[in-house]
Amino acid sequence: MSQAGNKLLTVIIPHRNIPELLKRCLDSIPARDDLQVIVVDDCSDNDVFSYVSDCLMGRDVELYKTQTVSGGGAARNEGLKHAKGEWITFIDADDLFTMKFNVIVDSLSGLDADIDVLYCAANSVDSDYFTTSNRANLLNKFIRMAISGNPEGEMRLRYTFGEPWCKIVRRRLIECHDIRFTESSIHNDTKYSYLVGYHAKRISSTPYALCTITTRSGSVSRTLSESKKLERITIFGETHKFYRESGIPQRYVINFLWPQMAKSFLGNRDTYKKGYEILKQKGFTSAQIKFNTMKHIFRNNLVDLKNKVIKMIET
Fold first, then answer.
1. What is the 3-state secondary structure (H, E, C) of the chain?
2. For residue range 197-230, what is the model confidence (pLDDT) as tens digits?
3. Does pTM surpass 0.90?
């Protein structure tokens, strides 16, 4: 049991303008004396925030609010300021914990002292109809690999699994290395995830699903503005640089950088040129940027051509 307020686990939930889903998430958390639950409201509409405040009355939940709309990364960082648990995990307001929550949390006390992260499996469903989706498939594949003793599974959990959910992390690791979320509009969890994986002495995995991750039509924009495209290039340019300097094989980086550069090259040369300059500042050479961009374009064009040929043959 932790000496920091006798809290074993802190759960941090960022929220903005989805109060009914937040209530559903909170209802999935069992009542425990050793649990600290924090909701950080990212400047929801006034009536929504009032509704959330009313819903939390009588619940053992701490509520904080950002002063401006700052995004999930800033909300999670605010939650970290108030965390008291020996362990910390995050869940989005539109997701739920599973019936295995207590089993998993009870197991934390029995983990070796040098285990810094427990990676858990997940379920994934549509938020409205609870039909199965494939959002957790990759995580569950990595979990199975790690449990079977395949070292590739551990590396994938440490460096490729970029979401904060289903990671239960010792607070001392986060505080010792000052690990925080990027306060960006997209991919704010990427740096947090790979720094947790990099600094963890040992990790452990469980086949039990901690969370049910949902998919919603309105949760992620299908189109990115130029600023978000440049944010993506910046974040994954820094990720590639960190992996390169830390001796982590580049194949573990989530492949967002070069597809974005390729799409920008084909769709908006101005965005590509700005991305090019960003990557130059991150230490990439002109040859590296051009080669990887063209490689991705060439490979995808071949895939498109192959699919067209197959479609012609089938018809």
1. CCCCCCCCEEEEEEECCCHHHHHHHHHCCCCCCCEEEEEEECCCCHHHHHHHHHHHCCCCEEEEECCCCCCHHHHHHHHHHCCCCCEEEECCCCCEECCCHHHHHHHHCCCCCCEEEEEEEEEEEECCCCCECCCCHHHHHHHHHHHCCCHHHHHHHHHCCCCCECEEEEHHHHHHCCCCCCCCCCCCCHHHHHHHHHHCCEEEEEEEEEEEEEECCCCCCCCCCHHHHHHHHHHHHHHHHHHHHHCCCHHHCCCCHHHHHHHHHHHCHHHHHHHHHHHHHCCCCHHHHHHHHHHHHHHHHHHHHHHHHHHHHHC
2. 999 999 999 999 999 999 987 554 457 899 999 9
3. yes
